[in-house]
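Minutes, project check-in
Item: structure for the 378-residue chain
Input as provided by the requester:
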Amino acid sequence: MPPTSTTPDSTDSPSSDPPEVTAENAAEILAADDEAETVPATGRVSRRRFLIGGTAAAAALVAGGAWLTLRRTNQGVVGAAQELPLVIGGDICAAPLYAAYHMGYFDDAGLNVTLARTQRTEDTKDAVGAGRYIGAPGIFFAWLEPIYNGVNAKLTGGFHSGCLQLVVNNDSPITQMADLRGRRVGVPSLSSSAFAYFAIGLSRAGLDVDPNKGDVSWVTVDEDSLGRRLTNGDVDAIMGSDPAPLLPVFNGTAKVLASNSAEPFCCSVALNGDFVANQPDRARALTEAWFKGSDYLAQDQANRREIAKIEADNEYVAAERSVIEDILETYGWHASATEFRTAIASGIEDFKGTGFISADASPDELADTVYADLGITR
C-alpha cells in the first residue's frame, strides 16, 4: 500500500511566504507548529522560532495597534493583549491564586496574569478600585463597606472558608466575645478583613465596635508582630488572617477564641469594576481559572502540600512549610459563584449590626451592587 499522502503546511512550504502574524492567528500558528516543529530545508526560520525568538521565552509583535505578548510557560506558549496584575499580600488563604498561577490555569485561559506583591500598609481595595491592580483575593466582609461607599470593585465568587482567627493566651480570662469589653485587641488595620468580620460577633455580643468611642481598645499592630505582642502582654487578644494569629497557637502558648470556619465563604474574587463592566468575558475567564485553583486544592492532600511548598519556596507567606501545610488542611474548599451570591446577602444582614453600613440598607439590593453576575453557573 502506498504511503498516505499529506498536505504540507502551506505557510512552511518553500514555495509560499508565511502569512502575516496577527493577534488573531498567533495562537493557531503556534498550536500548528507544536505538531510539526521542523525547520524547512531552505533554512528559513520557522514561524515558531520567529515568534518565540529561538531560545528566548517571549517575543512581542504589534497587532491591530496593540501589543500582543507571547510567553513560554510550563503549559506552552500563550498570548494575551493585556497584563492582569493580581494582588498577593502574604496570606496563606491566597492559595487558590497561587495554584491557578503555578498550575497554568490562567495561561490555559489565555490570560496574562502577573502577581503583584504589595506592602502590608497599602490599601489594596482602593488600589483595585482605581485600576492599579485588576483584582485581589480577599475576605468578602472586608469589601462590603468600601464598595457600599463607592470603591469601584465587584466580587465574582468565593473560594473557601476558615482563614480568620481571634486568638487569646492560654491563661487569659477571656472566654467569649463579651469578655473583650474594655480590652486591648491587636489588629493589622481597621480596614482589615479580620476587623470587618469579628466586628459582627462583637456587635452581637452587645459591644460597640466604633474605633473612636466604642467598647474595645483597638491597637494597630504590624501583622508579623501579632503573636509577639500577644505573648508579651501588650494586647489581650489578636485577630488576623492566617498565618500570623495562629503562630502562637502552634507554639502552644495561645488558643483560638473564634474563627470564621462556620461561614460558607470567606475569601473571594474581587475585581476592578471597570474591568468587569468593559471586559465581562475576560472577567469570567479569570474567575473560572481562579476557581480551578481552589478545585485543585480541594482534590487531595498531595495537591495542598504542593501548593504549600510553592508558597514557602517563593516566600509568598512568612511561615514554615509545615505550618502552611497544617493550615491549608483546616479550610473548607468550595468554589462557587451562585452560592457566593446567597452568602453575600446574608452577610450584609449580619454586617449591618456593626454600624459600618446603614441599618436601612436592603441586603439584596446591596448584594446586587457588590456582586457581579458573570454567568458562572456553579
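Outcome recorded: Residues 164-259 form a domain with the D-Maltodextrin-Binding Protein; domain 2 fold (CATH 3.40.190.10).
No further action items on this chain.
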